[in-house]
Write a structure and sequence with these properties.
Layout (H helix, E strand, L loop, with lengths): L5 H21 L9 H9 L7 H18 L7 H23 L13 H36 L1
Helix pairs in contact: 1-3, 1-5, 2-5, 3-5, 4-5
Length: 149
């Protein structure tokens, strides 16, 4: 079994956990909130939670990013490098927009005060941290693969 770098492990765990959370929301869960209306206000900034298809799409994107950060598929290092770079770029952009309080530019209607407060304090910083970890993971998982070939 190949050793993974700490950034790769943290990125994989964080992205995988978020993928699972979005999957649960697609299935109708409101966790960790009391109900769907509270979930919508806190996580989306709107009156309603996006439908299952949107939640599944986000879950798939996060799951794919987690797999790439973990170095999968190992046989295609160029794909891992490009994929982790792409995921890190998207996460960094989302994080910066959240920190600036402008997530509404990419998610129109995300305007509730509670969402903006959480976006600046939690979601934005989390996205920036995951962007950094994913970028570092991309570098760390590629080196050993290239040295083997």
């Amino acid at each position: 079994m190949r050793r993974r770098s700490l950034p790769a492990l943290l990125a994989t765990a964080g992205l995988g956990g978020l993928a699972g959370l979005h999957l649960a929301w697609a299935a109708g869960s409101a966790w960790p909130f009391a109900g769907r209306a509270e979930l919508a206000d806190a996580v989306v900034g709107t009156a309603e939670v996006p439908g299952p298809a949107a939640c599944l799409a986000v879950s798939a994107a996060l799951g794919t990013a987690a797999a790439l950060a973990a170095g999968w598929p190992a046989r295609y290092p160029a794909l891992c490098r490009a994929g982790t770079a792409g995921a890190a770029t998207v996460l960094a952009a989302r994080g910066c927009l959240g920190l600036a309080g402008r997530t509404d530019l990419i998610a129109p209607g995300s305007v509730s005060d509670r969402f903006r407060r959480l976006d600046r304090a939690v979601y934005g910083p989390l996205c920036v941290a995951l962007a950094a970890l994913t970028g570092l993971a991309g570098r760390a998982v590629i080196g050993p693969i290239l040295r083997r070939n």
